[in-house]
Design a protein that fits this description.
57% of the residues lie in helices and 12% in strands. The chain is α/β, with parallel strands linked by helices and 195 residues long. A 5-stranded parallel β-sheet has the order 2-1-3-4-5, with helices on both faces. It is globular and about 50 Å long. The N and C termini lie far apart (44 Å). The model has no long low-confidence stretch (mean pLDDT 96). It holds the Pfam family SIS_2.
Length: 195
């Protein structure tokens, strides 16, 4: 067997163990779940954004809220900013940095939540979205991979999951956090499903 197989799984386990022992990160995950629940109880909406693999995570997050996670329940209003026609239009007319912020300007409002995903915590278009969201009175939850990143510092809640040298370990932790957030929402809003 190739040695990198076991080494990769061991590294992933170490990253997860580090997250489990990080009380600040666990408290941030809890607070982020509460923010989502509060928004939904107040009739608000949830948006998510990110680049590359983080866009895939943003899409996964939104579809499991609007679609189905573990159990049948009412659909929840959530959208990832991933429409190719919007991205190409805004990218062409205003620049790639505006693709997420422009969408929020058109669709979001005060009290809505933005899940801003950036493994580096420095993505310029995610940063622009965070700034727009804050100006609009949205609640910003950042999902980052480096402590004290610019996006994390601007967010209301920064869930930082350092995973090691490369972004793939961070993304593996991000998807775990995303699933916890969705479960937190379901447990609060549909407790009968978890009885």
């Amino acid at each position: 067997m190739k040695p990198h197989i076991v080494a990769t799984l061991t590294e992933a386990r170490s990253a997860l163990d580090a997250l489990l022992s990080n009380q600040q990160a666990l408290a941030a995950i809890d607070a982020a779940g509460d923010a989502l629940v509060t928004a939904y109880r107040n009739g608000k909406r949830v948006y998510s954004c990110g680049n590359g693999g983080s866009m895939c995570d943003a899409m996964h997050f939104a579809e499991e809220l609007s679609g189905r996670y573990r159990l049948d329940r009412k659909a929840l209003p959530a959208a990832s900013i991933s429409d190719p026609s919007h991205i190409s239009c805004v990218g062409n007319d205003y620049g790639y940095e505006a693709i997420f912020s422009r969408y929020l300007e058109a669709h979001a409002g005060a009290g809505d939540v933005l899940l801003a995903i950036s493994t580096s915590g420095t993505s310029k278009n995610v940063l622009a979205a965070v700034k727009e969201a804050k100006a609009m009175g949205m609640v910003v939850v950042a999902l980052t991979g480096r402590p004290d990143s610019v996006i994390g510092q601007l967010a209301d809640i920064d869930v930082c999951t350092p995973g090691g040298k490369y972004a793939d370990r961070v993304q593996e932790l991000h998807i775990k956090v995303i699933h916890i957030l969705i479960e937190s929402v379901e447990r609060a809003l549909f407790p009968q499903n978890y009885a």
